[in-house]
Amino acid sequence: MSTDIKVPSEQTTSALVSDLFDDFKHLVELQFQLTRREIKVELRKRASAAVVCALGVGMLFLAAIVGCLTVVHLLHWVALPPRADLAWLPLWASYAVVTAVIAVSGGILALVGRVRFRSITSYQRVTTE
User: Fold this and answer.
1) Nearest CA among 99, 110, 106, 121 for reference residue 38
2) How far apart are CA 90 and CA 76, in angstroms?
3) How much is the pTM?
4) How confident is the prediction for the chain on average, in pLDDT?
5) 109 with 48: CB under 8 angstroms?
6) Which of 49, 77, 95, 109 could form a disulfide with 56 if both were Cys (CB 3.0 to 4.6 A apart)?
7) 109 near 61, Cβ under 8 Å?
8) Do the Cβ atoms of 127 and 34 come closer than 8 Å?
9) How far apart are CA 30 and CA 34, in angstroms?
């Protein structure tokens, strides 16, 4: 009866060090991929918050323009002779209502964008450090 004992092939020290460096290189590559993904996700969140904030600021700018038109029509209404305007709601008041609606909507959007910016965690995570 013959007994065949297989002796595991012994690796040289240089082969072990080479495998160690290959594993380290692979781990570093995986870490960079993870960091890139985290940064992409964070940038998407920031971009979405920026869009909402920009819409809010744009609406506030529009409200300022319509507000200026409100003042112009108010001055015109004040200069009119009594009973010259037969409308139930003067034109300046109509502009004021529209200004208020646009300003409130823009303010809400700007605040939502600000809250989104503040809710985003910064790059100071363990993987990015």
Assistant:
1) 121
2) 10
3) 0.68
4) 87
5) no
6) 109
7) no
8) yes
9) 6
Cβ-based burial of 63 (10 A; exposed 0-12, middle 13-18, buried ≥19): buried
Tell me which amino acid residue 104 is: V
Q: Where are the beta strands (DSSP E) in the chain?
A: none
- Chain-centroid distance, C-alpha 105: 18
Q: Please report the sign of the dihedral spanned by the C-alpha atoms of residue 112, residue 115, residue 120, residue 122.
A: positive
Which tens digits make up the pLDDT trace of 16-55?
A: 888 899 999 999 999 999 989 988 988 999 999 999 999 9
Whether 127 contacts 31, CB under 8 Å: yes
For the ranges 76-80, 93-97, 125-129, the maximum mean pLDDT occurs at 93-97
One-letter identity of residue 46: R
Banded model confidence at residue 115, pLDDT cuts 50, 70, 90: very high
